[in-house]
Amino acid sequence: MSSTPESASPVVTRFAPSPTGSLHIGGARTALFNWLFARGRGGKFLLRIEDTDRERSTPEATAAILQGLTWLGLDWDGEAVSQFDRRDRHAQVAHQMLERGTAYKCFSTQEEIAAFRAAKEAEGASYAVFQSPWRDADPASFPDAPYAIRMKAPRTGETKISDTVQGIVTVRNDQLDDMIVLRSDGNPTYMLAVVVDDHDMGVTHVIRGDDHLNNAARQQMVYDAMDWQVPVWAHIPLIHGPDGKKLSKRHGATAVGDYQALGYPAAGMRNYLTRLGWAQGDAELFTTDQAKAMFGLEGIGRSPARLDFKKLESTCGWHLAQGEDAALLHEIEGYLAAADRPALTSEQRDLLVRAMYCVKDRAKTFPELLDKAHFALTSRPVDVDEAAGKALDPVSRGILGELTLRLQNASWTKQELESILTEVATAHGIGFGKLAAPLRAALAGRSATPSVYDMMLVIGQAETIARLQDAAA
Ligand code: GLU
C-alpha cells in the first residue's frame, strides 16, 4: 500500500477543556472522537487544560475532567498541559508577530474604542469593527503608555476555512477585527493561546464542537501571521436532547460522572458516544478496538445528534453481555463508589464473579446487574419480599424440607439438580413452576431471579441447603 503524505505524518489530536465545570457529555464525545482518531492511526492524543480564565477555572473542575476521561478509558499522552502556565510563551509569540509586521502596538484606550463605536452607530452602523488609528502609525509617534498588541487582519477579501465536516466556510474579512492577541496588562488572549499551544504541541487535527467554528477563522489568521501550518479543522455539531433542543439538564444527566454513578459501563458509553454524530454503514454495536479501526472524520454528520437514552441502554446491555467477568467486577466496584453505595466484601466479590455468567446477559446497567445478582450477594437469613413470600405455605415448606434431604447427597451438577427437582415435582404431582416459586423465595427472597439451577450452582451446596432449611422451618 502506498502511503499518502497525510497518512505518513503522525496524527496528533488534543482535547482542550476549560475547567469551569464537570466533564459534559458533549465534551466527552469531543474527547472520544479525538482519542479514536489518534489511537486508530498510531498517533498521539494530548490533553490541554484551558485554565486562563482564572476566575472561572477551578482545580475541582480539572480533577472532575481528568476523572471523567479516565473512567471513559480515554488515556492521553504525556502530562496534561496547563494553558495558563504557558502565558510567557504566548506573549513571546505576540512580540514575534510585532517583529514580523503582522501585528502592531495599539495605544487606544477603552474610552477611545467606545467613542469610535458610538460614532459609527450614530452613522447608522449596527456593528462596527474597531479600526485602530495605530495600525499604520509611525513608531516615532508612539506615546510612553501601555499598549495592546493587535493582529493586522486583512480588511478586504475573504478568509476561507476548509473544514472536514462543514466544508468550505467563508468569512468576509471586513467582519474580522484586528483582534487583540496581547492585552495591555501583558496577558495573552484566549484566541492567541489556543493557536500557539496547538502549534507547539504539534497538533495536526483540531476536532471540536462547532461552537468554535467562528473562532477558527480568527485563529487561522494567527497561523498565517506566523507562517505556521494550519491544522486540519473538523468542527462537529453539538449534541441535542431527545426533543431536538439544545442539550440541557432538563433532558437528564449531562455530566459524565452522572453516567458512571447511574451504572453505565464505560465500554457501552464509548460505543454509544461514538455513534452519536458519527456513522459507518450500519455499524451500531462494536468494541472499542473496532471503533478505533473504523473511526474517521468522513463519517461525522453535519446535523446535531440527538441523545437517545433507550439506545444508550441497549448499547450498554450488549457490552455487559460481552464483558469479561473480572473486568466487570472491577468496573462494578468503581460504580459502587461513584454511586455512594456500600463496597463489596471479598466474599461478595467472589460470588459475584461466579454469578456473572447468569446475570450479565440481560442487564443494561450495573444496578440492574447487581439486582439480578441479589441472590449471590445477600446472606442468611434471606429477606423474603411480599410477592415471593406468597409461594411459601405449609405445603411448599414441606416440599422444601423434603428437598433438602434429597440435596444432601447430590453431586452438584446441573444435570443432577434437574433430575432431583423433576422427581420431587413429579412425586407431588405439581408442575416445575409450582416448585420453582418457593425455591426462588428460599434462595433469593424474590420472585424474579436467574434460574434456580444457576442460583444453586453459584451459591453452592451447603448454602443452598441452609437457605432451604431456613425457609422450610
Ligand atoms: N476550551 C474550549 C472549550 O472548552 C475548547 C477550545 C478548543 O477546542 O479549541 O470549549
UniProtKB/TrEMBL annotation:
What exactly does this protein do?
A: Catalyzes the attachment of glutamate to tRNA(Glu) in a two-step reaction: glutamate is first activated by ATP to form Glu-AMP and then transferred to the acceptor end of tRNA(Glu).
InterPro entries with a match to the protein in the record:
aa-tRNA-synth_I_cd-bd, aa-tRNA-synth_I_codon-bd_sub2, aa-tRNA-synth_I_CS, aa_tRNA-synth_I_cd-bd_sf, Glu-tRNA-ligase_bac/mito, Glu/Gln-tRNA-synth, Glu/Gln-tRNA-synth_Ib_cat-dom, GluQ/Sye
**Localization:** Cytoplasm
Question: GO CC annotation: what is one?
Answer: cytosol
* GO term, biological process aspect, one: glutamyl-tRNA aminoacylation
Is Ion transport a UniProt keyword of this protein? no
EC number of this enzyme: 6.1.1.17
- Catalytic activity annotation: tRNA(Glu) + L-glutamate + ATP = L-glutamyl-tRNA(Glu) + AMP + diphosphate
Q: Which CDD domains match?
A: GluRS_core
Top-rank taxon = Bacteria
Name the SUPFAM superfamilies for this protein: An anticodon-binding domain of class I aminoacyl-tRNA synthetases (SSF48163), Nucleotidylyl transferase (SSF52374)
Domain Glutamyl/glutaminyl-tRNA synthetase class Ib catalytic, chain residue ranges per copy: 11-313
Q: Where does ATP bind?
A: 249
Q: Which UniProt keywords apply?
A: Aminoacyl-tRNA synthetase, ATP-binding, Cytoplasm, Ligase, Nucleotide-binding, Protein biosynthesis
The family line of this record is: Belongs to the class-I aminoacyl-tRNA synthetase family. Glutamate--tRNA ligase type 1 subfamily.
Question: Where is the motif ('KMSKS' region)?
Answer: 246-250
Please provide, alphabetically and separated by semicolons, the GO molecular function terms listed in this UniProt record. ATP binding; glutamate-tRNA ligase activity; tRNA binding; zinc ion binding
Q: Which residues form the Aminoacyl-tRNA synthetase class I anticodon-binding domain?
A: 341-471
PROSITE patterns cross-referenced by the UniProt entry: AA_TRNA_LIGASE_I (PS00178)
Q: What Pfam families does its record include?
A: Anticodon_2, tRNA-synt_1c
Which protein are we looking at?
Glutamate--tRNA ligase
